[in-house]
Each structure stands twice: as C-alpha cells, then as structure tokens.
Amino acid sequence: MKTNAKTRIVGSSVPRKEGVDKLLGRARYVDDLEREGMWHGITVRSTIPRGMIRSIAFDPKIDWAQFAVVTAADIPGKNHIQLIFADQPCLADGKVNHCDEAIVLLAHPDKCALREAASAIKIEYEPLPPVFTIEESEKQNVIVWGDDNLFKSFLLEKGDVDAAWANAAHIVEGEYRTGAQEHLYIENNGFIAEYDTDNGVTVWGSLQCPYYVHKSLLAVFNLPEDKVRVVQTETGGAFGGKEDYPSTLASHAALLAMKSSHPVKMVYDRMEDLASTTKRHPSRVRHRSALDASGKLLAMDIEVCTDGGAYSTLSSTVLSRATLHSPGPYVCPNVRVRSRSWATNTVPYGAFRGFGAPQAIFAVERHMDEIAAAIGMDPIELRRRNFLHDGDTTATQQVMREPVILDQLLDRALAESGYHAKRARFARANANKPVKRGMGIAAFYHGAGFTGSGERYLNSLAGIDVTPDGKVRVLVSSTEFGQGTNTILTQIAAETIGVDYEDVMMAPPDTGIVPNSGPTVASRTSMVVGRLIERAGRQLIALLQEHASLLQSYTPEEFFAACARYRTTKGEVVSLCRYEAPPNIFWDDQKYQGEAYPAFAWAIYVAQVAVDTLTYSAEVEEFWAVQEVGRVLNPVLAGGQIEGGVAQGVGYALYEKVLLENGHMVNNQMTNYIMPTAEDVPPIHVYFEEIPFNYGAYGAKGIGELPHDGPAPAILNAIRDAVGVSFNSIPLLPEDLFAKLAQHTPKEEAAAV
Q1: Which of 497, 492, 579, 490 has the alpha carbon at shortest distance from 540?
Q2: Cα–Cα distances in Å, from 351 out to 181, 724, 727?
Q3: Nearest-angstrom CA–CA distance, 172 and 192
Q4: What angle do CA 136, 138, 142 make, to 5 degrees?
Q5: Cβ atoms of 251 and 558 closer than 8 Å
Q6: Residue 68's CB: how many other CB atoms inside 10 A?
Q7: How many CA atoms are closer than 13 Å to the CA of 579, on its beta-carbon side?
Q8: Rounded to an integer, what distance in angstroms lies between the CA atom of residue 602 and that of residue 85?
C-alpha cells in the first residue's frame, strides 16, 4: 500500500545533512576537540558489588598537589543523578552498590600520570551480602534497595482472567528469559567540561538528550538554568546508551573542571565503557494462556520481571513499555499482566533500543509457537485467528481506530519469503542431514512516542527560525547520532515552507540556543517532533502572509524577501509550536488504562536459519522484514533503520552475552563480547506498507525501535522448526544448543558426539 500524497522532498532519499562531513573526516567528535589549558580526567571505581567504604588512602609517593581530586564531599549541590527518581549518587558516599561505581575523580594534564595516580588510591571496604538475580531479589532475604528491592510494579487488567480457565479447551504455560545486551556504539562515552563562577557550567559531549544532562547538572551544582549549558558534539552511535549515562559523565567532568580551574576532558576506553555503563534489562516473562477449541485466545495471564541493577535509572518506564507490549498484537477478552522491576547489585540497566518491548515480544512470540505446537495448529493460522483488527480493543481498552493490516503484512511476508514451500522442503530434507533448516515468524507492534501521558508531561517545544543570511534553521534539542534526525527534520521543514532542502539547516544542539523538544528516544522524533516542525512551518507562512505581504503562492526567493521585510518591521523571524495531543488520546495513570500510544507501527518478520548439529552452531541465512510505519519520509534512511535493527536483533538472539562475575562484567572487550560481524548478518529484505497517520509529520509514525523487537523470536521459532526442540532463553549460544540437543539425541549417538 502506497500513499498518494504528493510532496517535493518528503518521501525522497535526499543526502544526509552530515553525510559529507562524516565521509571526508571533517566531523569532529568529542575526542577530536581541544580547549586551551585542558586537563584530562579519570575515574576510580569500586571493586566490590556491595559494601561500606571504610577508608580512601592516597599513596604518599604521588604528589597529589599536582592533581585535582574530587569526592562526594566536593559536590556543591545534590549528590544524585536526576532521572525519574533521584536514588543514584553522582559519586559513592560511604557505600557502594555495584562494581565499577564511581568513588573518586582525578584530573591532570598528563594522561599517563593519571593512570599511575589512580592505581595509587587504595579503598578499604566492609563487604555486605550482594544480590545478583531476579530470583534472589524477589525473595527479599537481603534488601539492597528501599524496603523491598522493588523499583516499580504495574498491574494491567482487562476482563476476568480467573473466570476464564474453567471454559478453556487448552491451557498452555511457558517461561522465557532474555539476557543483558551492550549497546556497542562506535564512539565511547565522552565529555569536555568548563566551569567558572560567572558563567557556570558548560559541557560538550556525546549524548542523546541535552536537557536530561542539563537537569542533572542543575541539581549537582545547585545552579539556575541559565548557568548550565549542554552542547551535543557529533555522536557516534547511541541506541539508548547515551540517554541516561551521559548525565553521570557530564557531572564528573564538570566537577573536575570546577576543582582544577581548567577545562577537563573525560573519554572512556572500551573496557571502561563496557564495564561501567548501562545495558539492556535482563528479563523473565511467564505466560499462562487459555484458548477455546478453535484456537481463539480466552485469557492471557502474564508475569513480567526485569533486573534493574543497582539504581532505578529508567527501569520504571522500561517496565511500563514491556508491560504494554507483553500481550502482543492479539485480541483477547481477558488479560492480566503483573510486572515488576527488581534491584540487584549489578551496574544499573537502562535505556536500549526497544525499551522493554524486545523482552516482552520475545516472550509472547515464542509462546505463540509453543501454543501452536501444544494444540496441534499451524503457528501462522494461530496468529491469524487472534490478530487485532480495526475496532478491536487492546489490553488497556484502547480502541484500534487507525487501520490495522496485520493480515496483509502477513500475506506479503509469507509470499516474499516463500515461507510455506521452504518450510515443507526443509522438513523433508532435515531428516537426513546434519545441517537442519527452519523457518520462523514473529508478529508484533511498537507504540510510537512516550507511553501514556508521557508526551503531555514533556510538553515539548520546537520550531524554526530564519537567519539574516537567508537560511532556515530547525530549532530542536532532538539529536543526530546516526539515525537521521538532521535529515528528516530538515526535509520536513523544507517541504512545509516551500524552499530547497539545501536552504535548511539544523541549529546547533545547544541548550543555550534550542528549546526543549524532548529526548531523542521512544521512536518519537519523526512523528512527534517532526509534526511540531511541520506546524511551525505552516505557522510561519501564515505570519509572513499577515505581516510581510507573502502571497499564497510564492517562490523561495519571495519567501526569503518576506522574511527580510518581517525582520525589518517586527524583529526576529521565528516560529515555535508546543505539543498538542491527537484527539481521543487519554491515559489514566491510576487505572493503567486508556490510549497507551497515539499510534502503532506493525510488523511481520520471517527468519530462515540453519543449525549444524555437529558443531552446534546456528546461523541466520536470510531474513524478511515487512512493516507498516506510516508515511516513509526517507526510504534509504528507513531501510537502514530496519537493517540495523535486525542486525542488532541477530546479536541479541545468538551472540551477545554479558558475563558477570561477582557483579562485574568480565568480558568487557571486543575480543570476548561477541557481536555479529558482516559475515554473520544475513541478506535482509525490507518491505514497507504505508498508511499515513494523520497526526504525525506528513503521516509518519515511529520506526527506530520497531526492527529490534522481532528478530529474536523469529530466529528462535525458526530454530525450533529446524530441530524440533524449544529454546526459551537468549542469547542462544552453541553450548546452549549442545546442552539441550544432546538430551534429545539417542544415547549411542550422543556418546559418539
């Protein structure tokens, strides 16, 4: 399905705004920048997972007068990082709650001297018993956070689940687990900070959300808003990993700048970045489902648990999205979801592409295949019988007012992949071959924008202005980190105003210049912020027509001439717009019911896998991704988002395992944290169906997180199809395949292996 909307620039694959600078090496990342008199900073971290700090000793062989030394006692404001809750200290003060927690900061002009000095600081602890798993935390034998180890819980209810079991023809139960995942952005975390008593704090860094960092710096330094300035530098990837953690690193660099009276740069190496920064939440999801004799869902009883790590960070909102996505894209009259996020003594888990949805969707889509096997139904037919359609209600009682075309997406995915023919062919061939092939599918949705009342709470502001030298500037705090923000938003502005794409530029992502358009997260940039830019453009045209004699039909030259006239008589040429919720979008935070998201993106993914039963390795041979994401604003960028998300999903399913020993990540190098290489990523076939969303920019919905949600369950469903054995935990490594397949191999054959 293609949109009939006619546009000049939106919908075309214009060149990336920052592409040439990156291609030619002109893009300057934080570690490329220098400030006059700049020092370097380093962090001394905890070596135990939980305990009291009894002493900090500084070796007298070091001339400490040559260093700036910062501890919690030096913080002029509040010793916390301001996220949803203020439970995470900027620097540990008296106790530590995870390995690699920051305790002491050092700055010096010489990096080599810093490393020697850091090793000369000895910290003595009184260890306390740690908690490392969801199961240990929920037992509450050891309390490591609050009164009960519980960061957040939700209860989502629809209908009467308990009454449904008696009438069920089938009841199927299952438990599904996902591990932590590292973001593996190309550029590690880094910041430069300056401080002076007159101007306050200025930081430049690799980040996603300038105003998140701004908020934490206000608290740490006890400064008014105009004394804190945050500037995003060119950012080499993020995936959520630079949503929450930059607030910590920016605060550390700024404290050292204050103490040393010098600009200070702090850039982590890969080992420190892997060991000390946030990751995707591990999860455990339990499903109990009731079905009638025809395979229609009668009830879904779901328990979602996540490991939040040592501090709450963004765990409550991650849990919320996991809760809302856990029933999948299915209609069911009776649903109950009980969800909890538990504290453990590991590095805090935080934002990661998908934000709780990949964990929940892995569970429900694996469970659908298990249901199909248990009741003797084809997994495709089971899904068809239970898909949401127009007019149906979700578990939160949200009515599907926008078109839902899951059947159409499924038909296309099956046709493009040759699913049925391949599955039958593989089934015939597998009996006589050690390499067994299978086909797997996942059906899913992803809510675009902040959950529930989140967008109303953000109350985002964005706009455009026109400079005296004849350039349109997009005014947003939304950031570019490889996903295409700069290109998409300038396309929207150029389209709306009627000027050339080359005449539009992004204002610097600097809190001293741009308004707070909200964080660059939650698949909201194109739909929500893009819509604000579209409205601001139309508002500016109306302003110029009223006050600067701009005609109804005009050329770009006439537009800029009108801007010059307006500037002469009225002043600055600027148009700002505040977020307005679409109609019929209401969320009840107390009842946890209502319109969870203004729009959903929908998808069907198909994986073809090969499992070698001699080497116990699994490989994704080919992948098909069919999705409906509203209007596709830039086909090349949209396709890249899907391909990148699928590649990350392959890693999540089969390769990437965070190994913890005593709470510390021990495989914190690229040599032993295994991710997919180009050899491991299969051919990915990407297809779009377009149904424009009336309240997104030119019909756009969210796209960035969707493609990470579906690959893992599709891949494991394909592995089950290939070998006839179920695997319900990821990552699924060769040793996991061996352990379970050996149980299903005749004894004499297993002995030979």
Answers
A1: 497
A2: 11, 35, 26
A3: 54
A4: 60
A5: no
A6: 21
A7: 25
A8: 32
d(CA 214, CA 197): 17
Query: Which residues, 6+ apart, have CB-to-CB distance to 235 below 8 Å?
Result: 29, 187, 206, 207, 208, 242, 479, 480, 481, 482
Q: Is 641:700 a contact under the CB 8 Å cutoff?
A: no
Quick one: tokens of 321? 């999205």
Query: Which burial class, exposed, middle or buried, applies to 653 when counting CB atoms under 10 A from its CB (0-12, 13-18, 19+)?
Result: buried
Q: Is 552 helix (H, G, I), strand (E, B) or coil?
A: coil
DSSP type of residue 697: G
| pLDDT, position 635 | 98
Distance CA 178, CA 647 (A): 17
Closest CA to 614 of 738, 429, 437: 738
Write the DSSP assignment of 236-283 as a string of letters: ---TTTTTSTHHHHHHHHHHHHHHHTS-EEEE--HHHHHHHS--PPPE
CA distance linking residue 43 with residue 45, whole number of Å: 6
The continuous run of DSSP H or E covering 740 comes out as helix 734-741
Residue keyed to tokens 């109306």: 542
Distance from the Cα of residue 31 to its chain's centroid: 24
- Average confidence (pLDDT) over 387-409: 97
H-run or E-run covering 69:
strand 68-70
Packing angle of the helix pair 419-430, 711-723 (nearest 10 deg): 40
Q: 198, 192, 215, 206: which is closest to 39 by C-alpha?
A: 192
pLDDT tens for each residue of 332-378? 999 999 999 999 999 999 999 999 999 999 999 999 999 999 999 99
Q: Which residues contact 622 (CB under 8 A, 6 or more apart)?
A: 417, 607, 608, 682, 683, 685
Peptide bond into 731 cis (omega under 30): yes
For residues 229 and 223, give the distance between their C-alpha atoms in angstroms, rounded to a whole number: 11
* Residue 474 · residue 490 · CB < 8 Å: yes
166-200: pLDDT as tens digits: 999 999 999 999 999 999 999 999 999 999 999 99
The Cα–Cα gap between 400 and 628 comes to 15
Location of structure tokens 């062919």: 425
